[in-house]
C-alpha cells in the first residue's frame, strides 16, 4: 500500500502541474489565472522530484515530463539565474523605469523622486489623475525636463521627446501614449500603456487594449522600440502573445521572477518593459513610494 500511495502521489502531482500548464495556454479568464499561478506551481516540483527519486518506478517518468512542461511553458518568465546584475556598457547606459503609482494614493511624487534617484533616464508612470500628474511633474522637472502625458499615463525623460501622441487602444479615453526619444545611440520609439483592469468576468477591455497595442507595434517599423507600463497580465498570459511576437522582455536577474504586485508581498509580474533592437545590460524591481505596485527598471547599452 505505501508503494501504491507513493506512485499515486507522483502521478497526481504530475497531473496537477500539467493542468496548470494547460490552463495557462487557454485564452481568456482561464489563461489569465493560469499564467498568474504558473510560477507558483513550481512549489509542487520539489516533493514530486523527491518522490520520483525515492520510488524509481515507471511512474517516476511522470516527474521529468511535468518538469519539462513547466519549464517550457514558463520559459519567457524564467529568471536569468547566471546573471548577477547590470553588465558594463560599451556605449551609454540608458535606464528605463515604469511604475503604476496607484490613483488616489498620493505617491506619484515619492515614486518619481525614487526612480530619479535610481538613475532612471526615462520614467513612465501610470494610473495617474490630475493631482498625481501635477505632483510627478513638479518632482521631475529639475532632472527630467522633457515630458508628455495623456490620460492616466505620463512619460518623463532626460532626452528630448518628439512625435508624441496619446492612444486610446480601442477604448473611449486615453490610457496609453507613444513618443520618440532622442537617446544617445539614436531614436527609440516608446509606448507607455496602462491596460484596463482585470476583474471576475471583466477582462475584455484589457484584452482589447493589448490586441490594439500588438497591432500598433506590428505596424511600427521602428528598429529600436520599448513598450512599458502596467499590462495587467503576467508574462506568459495568452493576452500578451501578440506583443511577445514582436518584442522581448529582459529576464529578471538572480533567482527572482521579478514579481511586481501587490507591492507588500508580490505574487505576480503584471508590470513589464518589452524591447527590440536594444542590448540589455540588466533589470531590477524596486519599491518606490507607497503604491501597491513595485517599479520595474531595465538598463540598455546605447
Low-confidence stretches: none
Helical content, roughly?
25-40%
Which CATH architecture of the largest domain is right? Answer: 4-Layer Sandwich
Give the end-to-end Cα distance, rounded to a whole number of Å.
Answer: 63 Å
Which word captures the global form?
Answer: elongated
Order of helices and strands: HHHHEHEHEEEEEHEHEEE
Number of helices: 8
Number of domains: 2
**How much of the residues is beta strand, in percent?**
15-25%
How would you explain this protein's 3D organization?
- GO terms for molecular function: catalytic activity.
- This is Membrane protein.
- InterPro entries: Endo/exonu/phosph_ase_sf, Endo/exonuclease/phosphatase.
- Helix 1 crosses helix 2 and helix 1 runs parallel beside helix 4.
- This protein is 33% helix and 25% strand.
- The strands form two sheets. Strands 3-4-2-1-11-10 form a six-stranded mixed beta sheet, with helices on one face.
- With 302 residues, the protein is α+β, with helices and mostly antiparallel strands.
- A hairpin with an 8-residue loop joins strand 5 and strand 6.
- The chain folds into two domains: 72 residues; 209 residues, Endonuclease/exonuclease/phosphatase (Deoxyribonuclease I, Chain A, 4-Layer Sandwich).
Amino acid at each position: 500500500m505505501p508503494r501504491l500511495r507513493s506512485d499515486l502521489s507522483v502521478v497526481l502531482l504530475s497531473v496537477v502541474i500539467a493542468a496548470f500548464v494547460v490552463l495557462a495556454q487557454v485564452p481568456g479568464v482561464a489563461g489569465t489565472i493560469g499564467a498568474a499561478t504558473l510560477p507558483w506551481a513550481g512549489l509542487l516540483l520539489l516533493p514530486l522530484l523527491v518522490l520520483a527519486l525515492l520510488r524509481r518506478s515507471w511512474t517516476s517518468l511522470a516527474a521529468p515530463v511535468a518538469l519539462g512542461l513547466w519549464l517550457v511553458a514558463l520559459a519567457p518568465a524564467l529568471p536569468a539565474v547566471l546573471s548577477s546584475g547590470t553588465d558594463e556598457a560599451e556605449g551609454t547606459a540608458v535606464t528605463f523605469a515604469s511604475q503604476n503609482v496607484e490613483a488616489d494614493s498620493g505617491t506619484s511624487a515619492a515614486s518619481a523622486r525614487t526612480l530619479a534617484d535610481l538613475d532612471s533616464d526615462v520614467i513612465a508612470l501610470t494610473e495617474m489623475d490630475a493631482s498625481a500628474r501635477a505632483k510627478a511633474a513638479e518632482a521631475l522637472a529639475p532632472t527630467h525636463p522633457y515630458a508628455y502625458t495623456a490620460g492616466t499615463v505620463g512619460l518623463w525623460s532626460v532626452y528630448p521627446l518628439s512625435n508624441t501622441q496619446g492612444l486610446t487602444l480601442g477604448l473611449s479615453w486615453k490610457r496609453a501614449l507613444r513618443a520618440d526619444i532622442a537617446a544617445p545611440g539614436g531614436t527609440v520609439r516608446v509606448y507607455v500603456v496602462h491596460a484596463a483592469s482585470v476583474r471576475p468576468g471583466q477582462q475584455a477591455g484589457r484584452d482589447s487594449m493589448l490586441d490594439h497595442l500588438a497591432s500598433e507595434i506590428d505596424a511600427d517599423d521602428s528598429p529600436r522600440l520599448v513598450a512599458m507600463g502596467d499590462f495587467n497580465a503576467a508574462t506568459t498570459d495568452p493576452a500578451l502573445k501578440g506583443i511577445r511576437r514582436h518584442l522581448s522582455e529582459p529576464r529578471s536577474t538572480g533567482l527572482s521572477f521579478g514579481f511586481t504586485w501587490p507591492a507588500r508581498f508580490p505574487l505576480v509580474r503584471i508590470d513589464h518593459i518589452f524591447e527590440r533592437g536594444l542590448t540589455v545590460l540588466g533589470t531590477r524591481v524596486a519599491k518606490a513610494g507607497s503604491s501597491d505596485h513595485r517599479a520595474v527598471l531595465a538598463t540598455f547599452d546605447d
